[in-house]
Amino acid sequence: MQHRSISALQSDNMSVSGVGNYSRTPELRISHKLAERKRRSEMKDLFEDLNKAVPNNGGTKASKWEILTKAIEYLHNTQHNERQLQSDVQRLQRDSDYARESHKENEMLKTEVQVMHQALRRLDPNAPHVYGHFTSQLSQAAAPHTNGGSAISLPPINPQAHPPPFAGGPPQAAAMQGVEYGGFGGR
Predict the structure, then answer these.
(1) Is-contact 58 70, C-beta < 8 A?
(2) 20 to 30 Å CA-CA from 181: which of 24, 132, 138, 154?
(3) CA–CA separation, 57 and 60 (whole Å)
(4) Would the pTM of this model clear 0.85, i.e. be above it?
(5) Cα separation, 147 vs 101, whole angstroms
(6) How far lies 118's CA from each of 81, 85, 135, 163, 165, in Å?
(7) What are 153-174's pLDDT values in tens digits?
């Protein structure tokens, strides 16, 4: 860059500072100074507020650079935490939906087991039909209703009438129905 003479710089300064159509009156300069002073004061107050709002700041006498750096770091951490929380909420919603569906399926299965237990008790009322905790509860709940209020279960009249499961032999006679008199001079 070429060196300019002092008179050239002064003439440029004169054209900017008040010569020609762009001249400012003293009132405009004063109002501009007051507006600029107000702007700087507001900026100072905002930096102080930001410095108080950001945790782990550099102290009460932190520079504007330190305040802005800490504020940006704080915002990044907050955004990261927010994304993590949103991810956790989505995961928990999926878990909740799964648990709700599992609960519905569980209730349907319990109903199905209850119906099957009732059908088995109708087919073979004297067998306990207890296969686990839930069927044990069902048997205990059904026992007072099936035996006239008594929880005692009587064995079949003819124990040989019920072959062991998958016995493979010829079918045996059914259990006795009522009283049979055999061998006493019958007809």
Answers:
(1) yes
(2) 154
(3) 8
(4) no
(5) 38
(6) 54, 49, 10, 22, 20
(7) 555 555 454 555 554 555 555 5
Residues 6+ apart with CB under 8 A from 76: none
Which residues of the chain, if any, have pLDDT below 70?
1-23, 57-60, 142-187
Read off the tokens for 44: 């100072």
Rounded to whole angstroms, the Cα distance separating 110 from 83 reads 40
Task: Return d(Cα 78, Cα 84) in angstroms, integer.
Answer: 10
Closest CA to 54 of 97, 62, 86: 62
DSSP 130-178: --SHHHHHHHHHHHHHHTTT----PPPS-GGGSPPTT--SPPPPPPP-S
pLDDT computed for residue 131 by the predictor: 79
Please, how many CA atoms are within 13 Å of residue 55, restricted to the half-sphere of its CB? 4
CA distances from 78 to 48, 71, 83, 103 (A): 20, 10, 9, 36
pLDDT at position 149: 46
Question: What are 83-109's pLDDT values in tens digits?
Answer: 999 999 999 999 999 999 999 999 999
pLDDT value for 88: 97
Determine the Cα–Cα distance for residues 29 and 10; give it in Å rounded to an integer. Answer: 20
